[in-house]
Specification:
Elements: E1 3-6, E2 10-17, E3 29-36, H1 38-47, E4 54-59, H2 63-74, E5 78-84, E6 90-96, E7 102-108, H3 113-128, E8 132-136, H4 141-154, E9 158-161, H5 165-168, H6 172-175, E10 180-184, H7 185-192, H8 201-215, E11 219-223, E12 229-233, E13 238-241, H9 254-267, H10 272-287
Parallel strand pairs: 1-4, 1-8, 2-6, 4-5, 8-9, 9-10, 10-11
Antiparallel strand pairs: 2-3, 6-7, 11-12, 12-13
């Protein structure tokens, strides 16, 4: 079944100014609509490495959801466990400045309760056949607890991505059960109730090591934007992953691509440092385009150990 990805689908409405962006003013520009959502992006990123993931999610009954499902299927993502419900599709409205950064956004979250029913009915078959599980750690606690119980039952590793750390901090008991948590610098500050905005990678890696020992989180990676990323594990090991230089067009989806690369690496034989390198490569490929996901790669390009070998 490959990697099983569990999370929401959004439609992203993105506005780009044609001239210098004026906060509070009327800006002439372009408005694009693309398929989004943290875990939807992650599923497509994984599929773009030809790894055929399974996506567990919900959409609604509109034509937009028809387009979402058609694209997922074209990318060879298994959508068997995607259901249509009322309010199943989220919306994210964002305005970008001339540097490609988000300056304002509003989002409407979908109702994900049907995902809980999917796992009640098919959870054993989904998790039993998975290579690993990817979840948004800020989903409803009841859904997450079911997934983690099944993962423990079938001895599957769970990788957690954060879309709202203010909610994720309430899942500390589950964070301790994840194989690896990935978040950005600001989110790590929320999680550990400290300000890391001025920290350099070397110092942040040491801080992260101490925090994991105290919090009992097994592994964690913190992305630091143009400063790269740092990683640490609960055994005291830590390191730095430098960034790749790239022209910034649109930062949307780069964190999701980074996470996808990390999850793929850890699932298929790589250590934390190597997985961070894969994540950085995927994130860099997204930053340089207006797409939310990475372009096509082959698993051989990352020397992934699939089925005990180095090829598909």
């Amino acid at each position: 079944m490959g990697i099983v990805v569990v999370g929401a689908v959004f439609v992203d409405i993105k506005g780009y100014p044609d001239t210098k962006f004026i906060p509070g003013g009327r800006n002439v520009g372009r408005v694009l609509q693309v398929h989004g959502g943290v875990c939807r992006n992650v599923a497509e990123d994984i599929a773009n490495i030809e790894l055929k993931p399974t996506f567990v999610s919900v959409v609604d009954h509109t034509g937009i959801s028809d387009d979402v499902l058609s694209k997922l299927k074209r990318h060879k993502i298994d959508t068997t466990y995607v259901r249509r419900t009322e309010n199943g599709l989220g919306t994210w409205l964002a305005v970008f400045d001339n540097g490609g950064d988000v300056v304002a956004s509003v989002s409407k979250r979908p109702d994900l309760s049907e995902i809980g029913r999917i796992f009640e009915e098919h959870g054993d078959e989904i998790v039993r056949d998975a290579d690993s599980i990817v979840v948004e750690i800020d989903m409803e606690a009841s859904i997450l607890k079911t997934i983690f119980q099944l993962a423990e039952k079938y001895q599957k590793k769970v990788y957690a991505i954060v879309s709202n750390m203010s909610i994720a901090v309430e899942r500390r008991d589950l964070l301790k059960k994840t194989d690896c948590v990935v978040c950005n610098l600001e989110e790590s500050g929320i999680l550990f109730s400290e300000d890391y905005s001025e920290k350099m990678p070397e110092e942040m890696a040491e801080i992260l090591t101490r925090k994991l020992l105290l919090s009992q989180i097994p592994k964690m990676i913190v992305t630091m934007g143009e400063r790269g990323a740092v990683w640490a594990d609960g055994e005291g090991n830590h390191g730095i992953c430098p960034p790749q230089k790239v022209t910034v067009v649109d930062t949307t989806g780069c964190g999701d691509a980074f996470f996808a690369g990390v999850a793929v690496g850890l699932t298929y034989g790589k250590d934390l440092a190597e997985s961070c390198t894969i994540g950085t490569r995927l994130a860099s490929s997204v930053i340089a385009t207006k797409e939310n996901v990475c372009p096509r790669f082959l698993p051989e390009e990352f020397s992934l150990a699939l089925d005990g070998g180095l090829s598909r």
